[in-house]
Amino acid sequence: MSTQKKQNSTFAELISSIREAHDLFSAQASKAVNINLTLRNWIIGFYIREYEQHGQDRAKYGMQLIARLGAQLQKNLDDCYSDRYLRLCRQFYKTYPQIRKSLISKSSLIENGKSLISKLPANRTNELIHEVQTIPAHLEMPPEKLLQQLSFTHFIELLKCEEPLKRVFYEVECIRGNWSVRELKRQIATLYYERSGLSTNKEKLAFLVKQKSEKQEARLPIRDPYIFEFLGLKSKEVMGESEIEDALLDKLQEFLLELGYGFCFEARQKRILIGSKHFFVDLVFYHRILKCHVLIELKVNEFNHEHLGQLNTYVSWYKKNIMAESDNLPVGILLCTQKDHPLVEYALAGMDNNLFVSKYQLELPKEEEMQKFIEEQMMEEERLNALIKENLRSVKLV
Hints:
Elements: H1 11-54, H2 65-76, H3 83-95, H4 99-106, H5 113-118, H6 122-132, H7 143-149, H8 152-158, H9 164-177, H10 181-189, H11 192-198, H12 202-212, H13 225-230, H14 235-238, H15 243-259, E1 263-274, E2 277-287, E3 292-299, H16 305-321, E4 331-336, E5 343-348, H17 354-363, H18 367-397
């Protein structure tokens, strides 16, 4: 019996095979995470709505229910359960009651899934469907398709469309075009629905939009704050932009603590919510002598005015949302690693008190110290890179 000898693959084919497996399983992982996150948030919305309508002691909490609930969940479960997030879950449940069908079909795959479904009375859900459904049933997108194609961050943008027909229009176009969240936001902002309604050649407009639209990548969107919170990851684990930046932040954190000026480390990649967008502050300290927060932003490139504007936004946000009555105004330090001359900028949140400004100049590191630190770290980085290249050349020669 003869067996066919398998042809040996080339190195290029090995790379191609691994790439194919990587793309396939990354896409499946992304889809699985998004579906489970979406289902979890839908049923959280159901629990809240159900309690508001039928809870035995609901009158005790009244208008403070969401705030009290968020405080308890943040204390006992996770920081993601803010008032805004819980309201989004409730709105999501009310807007997409048809997702219940998908939750039932997947309950066998979820541990204790049947107990979750048992708390979901069919008659109340049907009442809710009649309450919110103002479009013909044949236009409603199947729930399985919604879950398979859209992330929860997509749904957050769709919830902003109060008119049901408009929302369905963007659901269809988003799925047809495989839009990223950013592309969906852009199309809503540029009034694609309204322009399509006014257009005499809707097919041509749709073709032009499709040609220019940004497609969604088939990979785990790990930088999405909702995703990494759902997976139990911390900001620092996923938000680093480069190995160089991470290394510099590590050294910078140690450097400031060793100065002995009164820095108390508070957070790395501190996530803050401004409006509907999440931002991340590289390093946050509290200065026990100045009694204020010190925010540090590191940019591994040359200075531009957007960097300073971004830092000022963070400082102003801390002033409004974090600063206690006994605190002084927060301070921001911007570090830019220009190759020839590192730049250090200090941002003050409306500091017009001359005495305090003088004290801050005395207690915080001098610009010269910060510049010297950056220069030394960059020189060390260049030295290590040169050493690695030299070792690689030596290996090739051997």
